[in-house]
Amino acid sequence: MTKTILMANAIITLADVDFKCPKCECPHSEDDWWSKYEKAKDHFFYMKCKGCKTKIGVTTDIKGDVVVWLKEEETNSL
Question: Which entry of 14, 20, 33, 43 is 20 to 30 Å from 70 by CA?
Answer without folding.
Answer: 14
